[in-house]
Amino acid sequence: MTEYKSGFIAIVGRPNVGKSTFMNRVIGQKIAIMSDKAQTTRNKIQGVYTDNEKQIIFIDTPGIHKPKHKLGDFMVKVAENALNGVDAVMFMINAEEGYGKGDQYIIELLQSIQKPVFLVINKIDLIHPDDLLPLIEEYKSKYSFKEIVPISALEGNNVDHFMNVLAEYLPEGPQYYPEDQITDHPERFIISELIREKVLHLTREEIPHSVAVVIEQIRKKEDEKVLVQASIVVERKSQKGIIIGKQGKMLKEIGTRARKDIELLLGSKIYLELWVKVQENWRNKSFHLQEYGFKE
Ligand code: GDP
Ligand code: K
Ligand code: MG
Q: Member of which family (predicted)?
């Protein structure tokens, strides 16, 4: 009988390469929100994969990039911290994009990491197979990766194979979490992320990443339904208008979609009450960053 294996794996990579999509596929439930906009993931999220031979705890990091403001700074710190204390690092790239500045920055960060680093080339469903080899050669010349594995997180190609590769490098270890636990994040945080995801999906570039969602209250009502009250915080009055929409249409749509996901998560019917608040320049104020959960 082989020993049980377990370990912590950090997922790093530029925004939108498919980190959250990968984790959701592997974990099989929607815990990291996904969108086609950059910087969807701000906090580190742990997803736990468990089978009879291994347990892998994934840490989905915010896209590592050069910080532009305080929030950016915070996100880079989260990502760097995530690289310490893990058993291996998954560096994910988008097969469609060539080697770029963002990748160079990440590779510089990786130079100081003593753990195995895997290059995962995602979105291979989007490229011609002939284009894969030159890409592999290019990355090979920049860093000595333990393994290079092409996958499609969206379609699932080669994902099982990659999981087996990962398992080979895992140390023997205990099952840290019970097998039915898929994340260590409190529901409160996941609920706020689900609401923020709907805002990102439904609004355009005017409502970028200057949105935070604060859960004001979650409690069970007499009729057993759960009441969730949340504020959507934006930086400008004009953004508030967009989120509310004509005759409140946009906010209603955000609420309808978020309610469905939250009900799936909690396994019960909910009342969702949403407010929109303006908090000028919240991204540059440490005080507000703390209030909104971006703690170090
Ligand atoms: P993250 O920022 O790295 O977490 O990226 P996301 O997981 O949020 O994915 C960004 C976008 O890429 C989403 O629209 C995904 O549907 C898409 N995507 C992710 N993986 C794949 C893939 O393997 N193939 C294709 N075609 N699209 C993908
Ligand atoms: K994203
Ligand atoms: Mg993400």
A: Belongs to the TRAFAC class TrmE-Era-EngA-EngB-Septin-like GTPase superfamily. Era GTPase family.
Write down the mean pLDDT value for the chain. Answer: 81
CA atoms within 13 A on the CB side of 192: 22
Reported ipTM: 0.98
Determine whether the annotation assigns residue 186 to a binding site. Answer: no
Nearest to residue 238, comparing CAs of 208, 213, 194? 208
Task: Give me the architecture of the 187-291 domain, per CATH.
Answer: 2-Layer Sandwich (3.30)
Tell me whether residue 242 is exposed, middle or buried, using C-beta atoms within 10 angstroms of its C-beta: 0 to 12, 13 to 18, 19 or more: middle
CATH number given to 5-169: 3.40.50.300
Q: Which ranges in the chain are annotated with CATH 3.30.300.20?
A: 187-291
For the chain, where do the domains classified as CATH 3.40.50.300 start and end?
5-169
Q: Tell whether 236 is in a known binding site.
A: no
Pocket of ligand 1, candidates 11, 14, 21: which has the most ligand atoms within 8 Å of its Cβ, to mutate?
Answer: 21
Q: Does residue 143 have a pLDDT over 80?
A: yes
Task: Give the number of the atom of ligand 1 that is nearest the alpha carbon of residue 60.
Answer: 4
**Residue 123 Cβ contacting ligand 1 at under 6 Å:** yes
pTM for the whole thing? 0.66
The 10s digit of each residue's pLDDT in 194-247 is: 898 899 888 876 666 678 888 888 888 888 788 899 999 988 898 999 999 999
Give distance in angstroms: CA of 91 to centre of ligand 1. 14
- pLDDT in the model for residue 261: 87
Cβ atoms within 10 Å, residue 82: 22
DSSP-H helix ranges across the chain: 19-27, 70-83, 101-110, 132-140, 159-169, 187-202, 237-244, 249-266, 286-291
pLDDT attached to residue 184: 61
- CB distance 154 to ligand 1 below 6 Å: yes
Please tell me if the CB atom of residue 231 comes closer than 6 angstroms to any atom of ligand 1.
no
